[in-house]
Design brief:
- By secondary structure, the chain is α/β, with parallel strands linked by helices.
- It has a single domain, classed as 3-Layer(aba) Sandwich (Rossmann fold), CATH 3.40.50.2300.
- The chain contains 5 helices and 4 strands.
- Helix 1 (15-27) links the parallel strand 1 and strand 2 (31-37).
- Helix 1 (15-27) crosses helix 5 (111-131) and helix 2 (46-53) crosses helix 5.
- The longest helix has 21 residues, at 111-131.
Length: 141
């Protein structure tokens, strides 16, 4: 059974979108992944799409979705990305794993910040996939 990972940030336009893209890329068929926003913007940021395209990952088909209780119930793992703590976000009876990643928001910042955040998220997602035993390939590659 595939591990279900939910990435959450504020607008679901940048950080969580990158994480979803990396998890799909590196997790292949070993995980199921979704992303959501506590205040979803309704669209994926164009610069985010370009930053991922720059390294060969196409996230242009992903959507910006509002976080729901159903999404939290679906997940085995919830990762917050700078919006709030997973302890505050998840229901009291949540039995999965929770991670809080303190990642700066690159929106509206210089391109170098976008690239730095993207590379940080890539590293963290690779480590997460290994930690969850769902690696589809060597994360050091």
């Amino acid at each position: 059974m595939a591990t279900k990972i939910l990435f959450v940030c504020v607008g679901n336009t940048c950080r969580s979108q990158m994480a979803e893209g990396f998890a799909k890329h590196y997790g292949k068929d070993k995980i199921e992944v979704r992303s959501a926003g506590t205040s979803a913007s309704g669209s994926v940021n164009r610069s985010t799409i370009e930053a991922m395209k720059e390294i060969g990952i196409d996230i242009s088909g992903q959507t910006s979705d509002q976080l729901t209780c159903d999404m939290l119930q679906w997940a085995d793992v919830v990762v917050t990305m700078g919006c709030c703590s997973a302890d505050q976000l998840c229901p009291v009876d949540f039995k999965g794993k929770k991670y809080d990643w303190k990642i700066e928001d690159p929106l509206g910042r210089p391109w170098a910040v976008m690239e730095r955040v993207r590379d940080d998220i890539e590293r963290r997602v690779k480590e997460l996939i290994v930690a969850e035993g769902a690696a589809g390939q060597d994360p050091r590659s």
